[in-house]
Amino acid sequence: MRHPRVDVSALVGVRTRHPEAIAEAAARRARRPLLNENGRLMIVAADHPARGALGVGDRGLAMANRADLLGRLCLALSRPGVDGVLATADILDDLLLLGALENKVVMGSMNRGGLQGASFELDDRFTGHRPEDIERLGFDAGKLLLRVDYADPGSLTTLEAAARAIDAMAARRLPVFVEPFISRRTPEGRLSNDLSAEAVTRSLAIASGLGGSSAYTWLKVPVTENPDDMAHVMETSTLPAVLLGGEVGDDQEGAYEKWRGALRLPTVRGLVVGRSLLYPADGDVAAAVDTAVGLL
């Protein structure tokens, strides 16, 4: 199934002549509970571009075509069982104008300052949605990325900023999804996330304890290098969790198997997946989304 074509001229026309239409669309948007009757979540993620992460596989600028990305998102959001979307303000504003967020869970991406490949990548400042923005727009949750490098003193600043964001979300009774990693620089200077069982366990323990209340905190967790380790890793916290899909390359079936096993664990409540569903190797967005939904 081909994704719908998005009229960029129409979007730009509204943005230039009637920018308040975005807030108006947010105010009248039909909302739903975070969890539906089955207690599971299927969220499509598209917050990568704001961090300069535009690549999918060997296509370095795959996500750079905004009309194409919006069309893929509209198709994904139209599929049965897809609960909502995670994105930055520019993308969510477009989706509001397109009417694609009715009765969907809308998650605002909060920190995008750690640009991919930059010397300051680990100084992941909160340059996206603020808690007050998520509340004002009637969105349903926020998400923050928390990468901790034990060799980088700047990680302490990131930890503190994340804790204060969690406090601000809890004060508004808004869920916040924390995506933690233990990270380090390779000899070439590239940032790498450690997906060993020990590292993921430590990252979950650190994230769970941030802020003055964990009542509204969720964890967004990667599957470990060895998927069989996930049962022990997820014993680290009682906070509800969703699995981070990540980029899977050509091994889509292998990724589905990893997710299937982890989704059976008691604290895991769903999936948040982006590029692997929006840009599958075979190009069939609908089929990729439907298969992921079927895992739940």
Salient structural properties:
single chain; 296 residues; alpha/beta; TIM Barrel; 8-stranded parallel β-barrel; 35% helix; 18% strand; globular; Deoxyribose-phosphate aldolase
Explain this structure.
The protein is α/β, with parallel strands linked by helices. The protein is built from eleven helices and nine strands. It has an eight-stranded parallel barrel with strand order 1-2-3-4-5-7-8-9, surrounded by four helices. Strand 7 (217-222), helix 8 and strand 8 (241-244) form a beta-alpha-beta unit. Helix 2 (21-28) crosses helix 4 (89-97).
Could you state the CATH homologous superfamily? Aldolase class I
How do the strands line up in the largest sheet?
1-2-3-4-5-7-8-9
Q: What is the CATH architecture assignment?
A: Alpha-Beta Barrel
Strand content: 15-25%
Mean pLDDT: 94
CATH class: Alpha Beta
Q: What is the overall shape? A: globular
Q: In terms of per-residue confidence, which ranges show pLDDT below 50 for 5 or more consecutive residues?
A: none
Element-by-element helix/strand order: HHEHEHEHEHEEHEHEHEHH
Give the tally of β-strands.
9
Binned, the helix content reads 25-40%
Number of helices: 11
Protein name: Deoxyribose-phosphate aldolase
Domain Cgl0159-like: 39-293
Organism: Streptomyces dangxiongensis
Briefly, what is this?
With 296 residues, the chain is of the alpha/beta class. The protein has helices spanning 8-17, 21-28, 66-78, 89-97, 131-136, 155-171, 197-208, 230-233, 252-262, 275-278, 285-295, and strands at residues 41-45, 84-87, 105-109, 141-148, 176-185, 191-194, 217-222, 241-244, 268-273.
